[in-house]
DNA sequence: TTTTGAGAATGAACGGTTCATTCTTAAAAT
DNA sequence: ATTTTAAGAATGAACCGTTCATTCTCAAAA
């Protein structure tokens, strides 16, 4: 006797699942695997702690699921840089500005950062991250940077090195969670762009 | 009949104390207040856990003592930049290079970073940090940067903003503990200097 | 050279706390 | 009425700061 339509049931559950994953992303990104408590994720998702276990077997499974999702999303996110308007410099600048300003865009990067440095990260997550590592992002950005260098907008360093430095800086900035007041805001995109900007004054 | 002279005793104890503080600096800097376990500090100092309590009442006291010491040291450390040889640019570059390359120089910065962001940091530590905050470092560096801007070596942004941005970046880089391989090393001092470098190509 | 005893050191044990996870119970939905 | 969903209490294991009984060390005294 099924007192609920099969289909609607699935839909609701799927929605719940996403709701939990979304909450988990925020909490794991900010506090890391150890620092994130199931109760916090539950609070964020506006559910009770017990409920989480109807959708995920364990904290670990929740974490790994999240990593899997985020690894995919991030690659797509970065790919979108090529569709932005303007020169390579413009594209990179817009991309950077978005990340620095938009909190929700930061979560995936923070999560990856944590997953790369925290202890007790499940082997499966480690292995997923290895596939979607900095190396991959560098390759994704290579054409953009090469073009930027060709037309003299970007510095003439070794290209991969330049990308790596830029990504490291960006990542470091995002990760930093200093208490920010108005006197000392995060450096903005233009500041960061000086890392890659060519010798010509812009 | 005391089998050990008063003076020698004091010396030995003082040495032990320093030994513990040194170990604690490393461990607290890397793992933060919560993440650092007394047993880890003991291991690092090559002592048993119990011994720590002959010198410090509690984990908290040890932490606060350390913060106090580091707050003082750091101010002195930064002051030394003025004695370095060369132009403001040269000084800042040398200073930056030292910090990026020398692990032991990084510990105090990491500790402060942690103390500023971790939870459950004792009120006394918070208050100590407030006195020795970024604001103070900015004031310390102000003459250097003003001179650098005057002679056109530094960018013409608002001076305090420029210092703040630079310190934030430096701090973010230090704090980042990515697993570094040879393909993706930390950006070096020259990369970082581009943040402050003036429009003239160097 | 031996003895001695204060200070140093150890490491096991204690006790409190903190969670991940499970269980109970009951309301809501159909 | 029966099943699904939910909340929140309960459980139990792990962790870790701290203590303490015990042993060790080694410079001075004998």
Note down, in words, how this protein is organized.
Two copies of one chain form a homodimer. The first copy, chain A, has 202 residues and is mainly α. Chain A has a single domain, classed as Tetracycline Repressor, domain 2 (Orthogonal Bundle), CATH 1.10.357.10. In chain A, 71% of the residues lie in helices and 0% in strands. The model of chain A has no long low-confidence stretch (mean pLDDT 90). The A-B interface holds A 113, 116-117, 134-135, 155, 160, 164-165, 168-169, 171-173, 175-179, 183-187, 191, 194-195, 197, 199-201 and B 113, 116-117, 134-135, 155, 160, 164-165, 168-169, 171-173, 175-179, 183-184, 186-187, 191, 194-195, 197, 199-201. Chain B binds a DNA duplex (30 and 30 nucleotides) through helix 1 and helix 3. Chains A, B: GO terms for molecular function: DNA-binding transcription factor activity; transcription cis-regulatory region binding. Chains A, B: It holds the Pfam family TetR_N.
């Amino acid at each position: 006797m099924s007192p609920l339509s099969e289909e609607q049931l699935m839909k609701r559950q799927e929605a719940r699942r996403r709701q939990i994953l979304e909450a988990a992303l925020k909490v794991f990104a900010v506090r890391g695997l150890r620092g994130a408590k199931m109760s916090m994720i539950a609070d964020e998702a506006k559910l009770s702690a017990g409920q989480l276990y109807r959708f995920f077997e364990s904290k670990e499974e929740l974490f790994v699921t999240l990593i899997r999702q985020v690894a995919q999303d991030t690659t797509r996110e970065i790919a979108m840089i090529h569709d932005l308007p303007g020169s390579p410099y413009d594209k990179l600048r817009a991309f950077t500005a978005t990340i620095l300003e938009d909190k929700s865009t930061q979560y995936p990067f923070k999560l990856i950062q944590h997953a790369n440095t925290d202890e007790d990260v499940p082997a499966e997550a480690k292995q997923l991250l290895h596939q979607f590592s900095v190396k991959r992002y560098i390759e994704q950005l290579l054409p953009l940077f090469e073009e930027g260098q060709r037309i003299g907008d970007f510095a003439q360093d070794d290209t991969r090195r330049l990308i790596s430095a830029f990504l490291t800086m960006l990542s470091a900035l995002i990760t930093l969670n200093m208490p920010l007041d108005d006197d000392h805001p995060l450096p903005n995109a233009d500041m960061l762009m000086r890392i890659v900007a060519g010798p010509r004054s812009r």
